[in-house]
Amino acid sequence: MLPFPYRCGQIMGRSETEVLSAAQILYPCMQCADIFFLEADICQLGMDQRKVNMLAREYCDDIKRKNKPIILSHHMLPGLLEGQEKMSKSNPSSAIFMEDEEDAVN
C-alpha cells in the first residue's frame, strides 16, 4: 500500500505517481488534523476529499480511538458559470457561499 500522502494526492489534482512537494504532503495531514481538532463526529465533504476522510478513520485505528468520524461523501456541485464542472472559491462569481444572502443566491 502506498504511503498516505500519495494516496491522498488526488485531492490536489495529483496522481499517485507524481513527486510531491512538502506542502502537498502536509496538506492532507492538515485536513486530517482538522477533523480531530474540530472534534467532528460527521465529516461531510465532496467525493474528491474522501481519501482524506478515510485517512482520518485509519488514523483512529493507529491511535486506538473507538469513535471514528462518520464519512458522508457527496458529488461536487456544478459551478454557476457556463461549462464549469465544479464550484470554485477561487472565482467568487462561480460559487454560492454560506454567508450569501438568499436574494443573491436566487
TrEMBL record:
InterPro entries tied to this protein: aa-tRNA-synth_Ic, Rossmann-like_a/b/a_fold, Tyr-tRNA_synthase
Gene3D superfamilies associated with the record: HUPs (3.40.50.620)
Source organism superkingdom: Eukaryota
Disordered as annotated region, ranges: 83-106
Membrane-crossing residue ranges in chain numbering: none
UniProt keywords, alphabetically: Aminoacyl-tRNA synthetase, ATP-binding, Ligase, Nucleotide-binding, Protein biosynthesis
Pfam families named among the record's database cross-references: tRNA-synt_1b
Family: Belongs to the class-I aminoacyl-tRNA synthetase family.
Protein name in the entry: Tyrosine--tRNA ligase
